[in-house]
Every structure is written in C-alpha cells, then in structure tokens.
Design goal:
heterodimer, A: alpha/beta, 4-stranded antiparallel beta sheet, 12 helices, B: mainly alpha, 13 helices
C-alpha cells in the first residue's frame, strides 16, 4: 500500500531524514516511535505530499507522490499534529468544506452523518470550532481525515494533549478504524503503540533504528528478570544476603523509602524463578519484606535503549543503566 | 476552486474583517462624495473615484493579509495542500474571494452615481471607465498583497510590507521625477499606477496599454504566489 525507498530530506545542510526505507501492507497498523525532532512528522508530511524530499521515492497505493500527486492524495486521510481546523467555522460547515476539497463522489449528507456518528460529535455539530474542547477538536480533525473514506489514514500524535478519558476514546476509535483502513500513526506514548500496532518503526535522528512487532522488540533486549524489593533492616546485611541468593547477579541500593526500609533493584541472570529463594532467605534472616515488584523491560526502556544505542558514540554501560533508572 | 472561494468569502464575514473594510470604504468614500459632489453642487464624480484610488492602497492589505499567512500560522494549509486539489485552484479561489469583497466595497460608487443622476445628467461612460479603472487598480493591489501574505506566516508583517509597497506605488510619480538619470526615471514612471490610471480611465478612455498593465500585474503576482508556496515545499 505504501512503499518508501531511500527517502532523504535535507533542510539546508541539516539532514532531517537519512535513507529511510519501509513499506506498509494493506490493512496493517504501523506505529511510528521516536523522540521529538526525530523525523516522524517530517516523514508523515512527505507521505501526504505536504513537503517534498531531496531524494528517494514514495509510492501511495500505486501512485508516485511527485509524479501523480492527485491520485496519491485521494487515498490519504491526514490528521497532522495540530488539527487543521478553521476556528471560525461550525463543525458541520467544516466537514462539508473538507468534503468539497476531497472531491469525494460519495453522497455528502449520508457520508458526513456516518462519520459524525462514528466519532460521536453529533452534539457539537452546529457549534463553532473555536469554542470546542481539545478532545472534541481532535475528534473533528479525525473526522476530517476520514472524509472521502480514504484507504490510508496517517495520524500524527493523535492523543497528545488529551486527558486520560479522551485518550482511551481516541485509542478505541483507532482500534475500530484498523478494520477498514491502513493506519500509520506516530506517538511517543509506548503503551499506546504496544496495544494498537501490528508493527513498530523506531526512528531517531532521521534514521530507522528498529522495525519489528512490538512484542519482538521488547524481547530483543530482555534477557533477564529484574525486580524492585523493599526490605527493612541494615542495608549492608541485606546486600550481602541478597548477593548470596542463587542466580541473583546484581544488587543495587536505590533509596531509603521509609526509616530503616530500603529499596533495592535486583537482577537475575537466568530464566529461573528467584522469588521463592529470595523469600525463604529473607525470612530465615528475619528481614521483613515490605514489597516486591517486577520491572520487566517496558517498551519505554527498550525505546530508550534503542535510541541511546543508535548514538554514534556509545555511552559506557553504567551510564546507560543509570539513565534508565532515572527515567523509570 | 469553488469550495475554496466559498469558504474564503464566508471567513471574511465570520471574522469581521469583511464588515470592517466595507464600513470604512463606504464611510470614507461617502465623505469624499459629500465634499466633492454634494457640497460643490457638481455632477462630476471624479473626486469620489480618485479618493478610492488611495483608499484601495490602504485597505487592500487588510483584505489580503490573512489569505495565506493565517493558514500557515494555524497550520490549516496542511489540509489544503494534502487534499487532491491543485495549488493553482487554491490560489485562484482565494484571489477571487478577495476580489469579490473589493468589488462589493467599490460598488457603492455606483449608488452615488445613481443618486446624482436623479438631479442632473451624468456622463455614464466616464462613470463606467472610472469604475473599471478603480477595479483594475484594486485588483493589482490585491494580487500584490496576496503574494506578500504567501511569503510570511505573520499577518502583521504581511500587512506592513504590503502597505509600504502600496505607498511606494502611490508616490511612484514623485520618485521617478526626482531621479536624475533619464532612462531610470522613465522606467519607474512606467510602473506608476497613477500615470496608468489618471491618464485614461477618469477621462472616459480605455487604453489597451493601461488595461494590459494592470491585468498583467494580476497575472504576475498570482503566479508568484503559486511559486512562493511551491518553493516552501521544496525548501
């Protein structure tokens, strides 16, 4: 459905995208992940024909975006980072305007009614966009992207700036959309990408540094079990005890959470269950266990690790783990 | 193009700019009409038409300032440029909407002409050539303003640059006569709006070279607008 080959974009001497290659199959949901300024929005702006590029090729549903832009753009619904809304228009007139410029052949009233129902914006249809809440504005923007029933939806950070309730609603909407559309969306909220996408592209400094299913992505880097434990008692005693438990490879003191109670991070070197041994070791030494939680690699950590590793100068391992802690 | 045209026209009247420009144009031209025709007991409308020449220079930047600057500033150009619609249609849609607003503003002079004709015989050919002249001058100002609006995302910058340009155009005769070198002075004089306007239209004459002058300014600046937007995509 989408083919991107050797895409490079320069802003003056600044390389915004560097030889980006990927393709998206019909019906696939692709997540774009990357820190701010990584090139996510630039890529999306190029795919939709808003920006041009320095070299490479972009094919949308069989049409080259430079040679046949009209045909390519017909297949795209785009929701940019800031929804492109005219504040002085009413929702209804805005949607009709979008319908007009999309040159859709569908019956207008019926089509707009359907989209309004789907996005539950019926009660604000007659209102002026300026007066809508952010969540409604985002939904109206999404409605605009859906007009003309395009095969491909490109959504740039659709959940940014919304409250948790609205985020869930928008996510559910995207979840429903993937039944009928090919969807590309960008985000820096990783759980969102995890729950919605078939595939994730991680992009940093204009380069794709990972392209995989979300599950495989975290498995790539996950080879040990990690736990946070809260234990009451003398910290030197606890550390030496923890180090003596089978399979525990490292123990780190993190902080004193209450008086006399310390939090540690422990890592096990193998797949073996260490919690049982840990419990008995502590109870024998009469050291009360206040809490235990696992800290498996979340996509956040995978992401940070990938981004860090892709830097030209590798940081020493210690610093990487230190910054991982700070962020967790 | 029609969709863009309609939306643009609507937004003039949603955002009060349309009403504001119309009010001031009507009011000021009425003032000139009162002083030069009614108070003077004269059936000559040239004073009113000539006043619009300067009014157009001052008010056209307000009509054109938001055309593209606002779209860029609010990022709404993203929906326009990613829709299956040609860039030239977008530019023309906006251009014609601005032209129509200007046309409504100056059409008040025809009302004044009708009022005068009730009291005395009026030279209608002169009224119509003057009106056409006014329209051409204003449309040239509008295409210049549209171009400046397309190269900045700040409406204030757009309005100021357009206004300065229009004022330079207004005093072009003075500039050209103060230049010592003959052929440079002639070159500037040939760009003067007032010499192209005053030497034909208010006298009831339609000179081809003057009509072509204003029409070609419209074409040039509309093309430049398309190029300016296109260029931004490639930068």
């Amino acid at each position: 459905m989408i083919k991107v080959r050797g895409l490079t974009k320069k802003y003056g001497s600044n390389l915004a995208l560097d030889d980006v290659n990927f393709s998206v199959k019909e019906g696939e949901v692709l997540g774009f992940l990357g820190p701010n300024g990584a090139g996510k929005s630039t890529t999306m702006n190029i795919l939709t024909g808003y920006l041009s590029f320095s070299s490479g090729s972009v094919e949308i549903a069989g049409a080259d975006i430079l040679r046949d832009p009209m045909e390519a753009k017909k297949n795209i619904g785009y929701l940019p980072e800031i929804p492109p809304l005219y504040p002085e228009m009413t929702v209804d007139s805005y949607l009709k305007f979008i319908f007009g410029i999309k040159k859709s052949k569908l019956p207008m009233e019926k089509h707009i009614d359907e989209i309004v129902d789907k996005l539950a914006i019926g009660d604000v249809r007659g209102k002026i966009i300026r007066n809508l809440s952010k969540g409604y504005k985002q939904r109206v923007g999404l409605a605009g992207a859906l007009i003309g029933d395009p095969k491909i939806l490109i959504l740039d950070e659709p959940t940014v700036g919304l409250d948790p309730q609205q985020i869930i609603e928008i996510r559910n909407l995207i979840g429903n959309l993937k039944l009928n559309h090919t969807v590309i969306f960008s985000s820096h909220i990783l759980s969102e990408v995890q729950s919605l996408c078939d595939r994730v592209l991680v992009i940093n400094k204009g380069k794709i540094i990972a392209d995989d299913a979300p599950k495989d992505l975290s498995r790539q880097l996950e080879n040990k079990q990690n736990f946070f434990v809260l234990i009451e008692g003398d910290k030197d005693l606890v550390i030496s005890l923890l180090n003596s438990v089978d399979y525990i490879s490292s123990v780190e003191l993190i902080r004193e959470s209450q008086k006399g109670v310390f939090e540690y991070k422990i890592s096990a070197s193998s797949e073996n269950e260490i919690r049982r041994d840990l419990f008995f070791a502590l109870s024998e030494a009469k050291l009360p266990l206040f809490g235990l939680r696992s800290c498996d690699f979340s996509l956040e950590e995978v992401f940070l690790k990938l981004v860090k590793n892709s830097k030209p100068q590798k940081l020493p391992q210690e610093e990487v783990s230190k910054s991982l802690q700070e962020s967790s | 193009m029609l969709t863009i045209f309609k939306r643009e026209l609507q937004s003039f009247f949603f955002s009060a700019i349309g009403y504001m420009v119309m009010t001031f144009m009507f009011m000021l031209s009425a003032l000139f009409f009162f002083f030069t025709s009614i108070l003077e007991n004269s059936a000559n409308l040239s004073g009113t038409f000539n006043s619009i020449f300067s009014l157009a220079a001052f008010f056209s930047p307000i009509i054109t300032m938001r055309l593209f600057s606002e779209e860029r500033n609010k990022k709404t150009d993203q929906i326009l440029l990613t829709s299956p619609i040609k860039l030239s249609s977008i530019v023309l849609g906006k251009y014609f909407a601005a032209i129509l607003l200007y046309f409504i503003c100056i059409s008040i002079t025809l009302v004044y002409a009708a009022v005068i004709s009730g009291f005395s015989a009026l030279e209608w050919p002169i009224v119509f050539t003057s009106f056409l002249g006014m329209f051409l001058v204003g449309s040239a100002f509008i295409s210049i303003g549209m171009f400046f609006s397309s190269i900045t995302e700040n409406q204030v910058v757009a309005v100021v640059v357009t206004l300065v340009t229009n004022i330079v155009v207004l005093i072009m005769d003075g500039i050209s006569s103060s230049l010592p070198v003959k052929f440079i002075s002639n070159f500037f004089k040939s760009l003067s709006f007032s010499s192209h306007y005053f030497q034909s239209f208010p006298m009831g004459m339609l000179k081809l070279k003057d009509v072509v002058f204003f029409v070609s300014l419209n074409v040039i600046f509309t093309l430049l607008t398309v190029r300016a937007i296109e260029k931004r995509r490639w930068s």
